[in-house]
Specification:
The chain is an all-alpha fold. It has helices spanning about 10-30, 35-50, 55-65. The relative contact order is 0.13.
């Protein structure tokens, strides 16, 4: 029989934030099909720095530039 360890609540929260940010990136690429450069710029901000992005506003701004 396997022993299951409880997950640290803080790590669970971090995992949840990472999942949410990755979902945002998938939506951003699916809906706006950004260039690789813009996608990785958004990835850096959203996933690595954990800065919330308004995906629609971000995509609109980057398309205009």
């Amino acid at each position: 029989m396997e022993n299951h360890q409880s997950v640290n609540p803080q790590s669970s929260s971090t995992f949840s934030q990472i999942k949410e940010s990755i979902r945002d990136m998938v939506r951003l690429q699916r809906d706006y099909q950004l260039s690789d450069e813009l996608f990785w710029e958004a990835f850096d901000r959203r996933v690595l720095r954990n800065v919330p992005l308004n995906m629609t506003q971000y995509a609109t701004m980057t398309v205009r530039s």
